[in-house]
Amino acid sequence: MIYGIGTDVCDIRRIGAALARHGPRFAQRVLGPHELAVWQQRSARSPERGLRYLATRFSAKEAFSKAIGLGLHLPMRWRDCEILNLPSGQPSVQLQGALNDWFAARALRAHVTLSDETDYATSFVVVEHNPCNTPP
């Protein structure tokens, strides 16, 4: 059963402006530790690739926060929600801390897709509830 759906469109130029204003601190505030390592590697190879990676993750976290119905209120914190790629390349949601506990207590599962084109990054998240998987 669908618990929630979220979508977000992000202007990559806006993320670039924030990165120019705040430097790496902006990425450190938004990205979790695994995402931050990927962002640093991509940025070292190509600043444009790093920027697009940051924008897609920003967009996906916004969409996820909408899908779970919390917005950016606790236990939803930027760094506790990571959008990582499986070996196949498929993006997946990995949660930590209180957000992971909150999510698991509700027997939720998230599906995410993201894309970027020209000046925009977009993402779509569907969160499912499976009452058969509710923890005891």
Automatic annotation (TrEMBL):
What's its top-level EC category? Answer: transferase
Q: Where does Mg(2+) bind?
A: D8, E62
Name the major location. cytoplasm
Q: Which residues form the 4'-phosphopantetheinyl transferase domain?
A: 4-106
Q: Which InterPro entries match?
A: 4-PPantetheinyl_Trfase_dom, 4-PPantetheinyl_Trfase_dom_sf, ACPS, Ppantetheine-prot_Trfase_dom
EC number, UniProt record:
2.7.8.7
The UniProt keyword set, sorted, is:
Cytoplasm, Fatty acid biosynthesis, Fatty acid metabolism, Lipid biosynthesis, Lipid metabolism, Magnesium, Metal-binding, Transferase
- This protein's GO CC annotations: cytoplasm
- Where found in the cell? Cytoplasm
Tell me the Pfam families matching this sequence: ACPS
Q: Which Gene3D superfamilies match?
A: 4'-phosphopantetheinyl transferase domain
Outline what the protein does. Answer: Transfers the 4'-phosphopantetheine moiety from coenzyme A to a Ser of acyl-carrier-protein.
* Name this polypeptide is given: Holo-[acyl-carrier-protein] synthase
What organism is the protein native to?
Answer: Serpentinimonas maccroryi
Cofactor or coenzyme needed: Mg(2+)
Citing just one GO molecular function, the answer is: holo-[acyl-carrier-protein] synthase activity
Q: Does the keyword Lipid metabolism apply?
A: yes
Q: Which GO terms describe its biological process?
A: fatty acid biosynthetic process
Q: Does the keyword Lipid biosynthesis apply?
A: yes
Catalysed reactions, as listed in the record: apo-[ACP] + CoA = holo-[ACP] + adenosine 3',5'-bisphosphate + H(+)
SUPFAM superfamilies in UniProt: 4'-phosphopantetheinyl transferase
- Could you say which protein family the record assigns here? Belongs to the P-Pant transferase superfamily. AcpS family.
